[in-house]
Amino acid sequence: MTGAERDPAPDATRAPAQDTAGLVTRALAALVDSCVVAGLGLAVHLGAAALRVLVTGPPFRLPDPPLWLSGACGWAIALLYLAGNWTLTGRTSGDRLLGLRVTGRSGRLLGVPRALTRAALCLVFPPGLLWVPLSRRRASVQDLVLSTVVRYEHAERRTHQER
Amino acid sequence: MTRYPVLHPVGTARRLARFALGVAAGAADALIRGVTAAVVERLDLDDLVSRVDVNRVADRIDVDRIAVRVDVDRVADRVDVNRVADRVDVDRAAGRVSVDLVIGRVDLDLVADRIDVDRVASRLDLGAVLARLDLAGLTKDVLEEIDLGRIVRDTGGGVAAETVDGFRARSMRADRTVNRFTDRLLHRSDGSPP
Known about the structure:
The complex is a heterodimer. Chain A is mainly α. Helices cover 58% and strands 6% of the residues of chain A.
């Protein structure tokens, strides 16, 4: 039993377990997000090549950065993409497609520090997602650490209507 | 000395003969006229015409021989076509034509069989026809009329929404299956979705 389960949030908006997204849906959303991040990385790569053409002139050649730089850039792009989407709308592209929403346990959108920390934890420790089916409230390791919740959108709408 | 004319016997005879012939000719003319008038007056022309066998007369006429002797060009030259056309009342003639009757007697299948479609098609100048058509305007009008954009939007949006809904429903079912499995594995009965 986790700490969060021992100390559940007292407010009425606490998500019932059946409204919390499971492992398959979250994994599919993460897969979609990884594709989006790959696309963003490619766009950044092409943008860097175009910038170099503008500065140094032709020919147009794709930059060949060292591995650590590529990794760092990819990591930064993913971090900003996840944290930005969770802060602004609570939904990344994958979440939007699968009908998910990431909020705090109170139902509010995440703040910037919490969103950045959650994104970093997701990137550093993706297997944390595997804790979802083992948790009573279907929480991943990241959710347990940061007290966040991933809910189905229809459950989110129902909660708003009940309010 | 004065000369007196003497009657010449031959000349006198000649003059007398000429006088006699003149008198006889006049009498013969008067006689023929009188007889002819009397005959005509006594003849019943209707009776005479009714006795004529027209068919027999027609049989005895050699039409080919007459036709050979007719100079068609000369006849045609003497015909004033414009004058004939001016005297024809086309409206009256058209009014007497029964179009339904004409159409009913036309064998359309026979006409269609006789039409060489390939030949007709080969003589068509499609380029000229297309050049006279405002295809861009026509297409624009058609598209405006059927509002293709709205149909594409509605159809595409509907299909996409249905696909996404189905995808979400399947992933949710998969979540529940995984959750049930782990609950059973961990001997948990509460807190799990139904």
